[in-house]
Design goal:
- By secondary structure, the protein is an all-alpha fold.
- Helix content is 76%, strand content 2%.
- The protein has 22 helices and 4 strands.
- Strand 3 and strand 4 form a beta hairpin.
- Helix 6 packs across helix 18 and helix 10 runs antiparallel to helix 18.
- The chain is globular.
- The chain starts with a helix and ends with a helix.
- InterPro entries: Na/Ala_symport (IPR001463).
- Its main location: membrane.
- It is found in: Cell membrane.
- It comes from Lacrimispora sphenoides JCM 1415.
- It is a multi-pass membrane protein.
Amino acid sequence: MIHRIHEMVWGPWLLVLFLGTGIFFTVKSGFFQIRKFPFWWKHTIGSIQEDEGEEKGEVTKFQTACTALAATIGTGNIAGVATALTAGGPGAIFWMWVSAGIGMMTGYAETMLGIRYRYRDRNGAWICGPMVYLERGLKLPVLGMIYSFLCIMVSLGMGSMVQSNSIAETLEYSFGIPPVPIGIVLTGTVLLVVLGGIARIAFVSERLIPISAGAYMLFSMVVIMSCYDQIPYIFQCIFQDAFRPVSAFSGVAGYQISKSLQYGISRGVFSNEAGLGSMAVLHGAAEDTTPEQQGMWAMFEVFFDTILICTMTAFVILCMTEGDAAGSGYDGAALTAFCFSKRLGLLGEYVVSGAMLIFAFATIIAWYYLGRQAAIYLAERLKERRSLYILQRILRGKVYTMLYLGAVFLGCLAKLETVWEFSDIWNGLMALPNIIAIIFLMKEVTVPENAEEWALKYTRR
């Protein structure tokens, strides 16, 4: 039953919706992500030195970007890519590129709207995300509440249990550590970080993500360049497989194309989260910024997560399996570890294990903030309903934190096939109100066409 619901939610209609939304904003902006690449690069990753000079105590733009990357760079970049290649063939990586390329504008739109409509709660903290622009922009507070509920469910499933399960399985497989002590140590570490709020989460993310992602990319390049002569053949496999009409045609594409497209786009969305609205929540804490700049940071995150990290994982796998990932006999993280170890030996397994651990931990702390923001918003909307007073107190108090930590611990012990499917269902449903909002608020989504004017406007803030 759950599997059938999962297939319904993540059917072709949802992939078309993701693609259609990204294409719409890409065309509307005049292919801004390509045409203005030097501009948005300069005002995102190229502005780090300026960002470092901001006052202490503030959450900087670079920190919010690292927190957003912490939520997106996770098991999908290692296990998800491997699964896409074994199930959808080499062509899946092409459609992952397509998903990321147009998803950059979807991420821009939702993040820009989030910053435009954000507000401070009674404690002075920013509340930001699709639930806010659904209520204040689209005037549909009920949809905002639905989005918040779905976001909470995703945080307790994919954001915590799935990630902690990956950590426990990795440590047990690599070092033989039992799940219970892993769960205790991991839950305690997460507690120490999240008790410090967004400031500590951003601080930890700023230290973890650049170092871990940089190390993973370095070792990936070592493996790829060790068989550089295969790179032209790998590109050939990717493009041929992406458009190969196998057997009977179905509409305009063959079965193999359908599989490549489905797995490429769905894994791309799972990895970079463009269209889910999560980036809009995570960017809400940034100070001294503009909606346009935070939108461009969201574009950079999608680019970095999928175009760079996922592509490197895919090329390592395809190079080591000579373009036939499905014939290796492995899948998921085991396939990635197998391919790294073929070239780097035991060090290769440690590279994948270390990356899985750090990426998954970073995702856990980032998704706590996502779920907590949604819980605070939902509690505020429920306070006027006396019949739901207890639920409101639960969401506003420390109960959500305890539930989240309990999910982290339980994830280390449980088998999560059902949780994976439920999390995917919540993910897909969460995208619907967000995409509805950014489509109906499309007139408010603008890109900085005049680079000089926009730069001057920003420096005067």
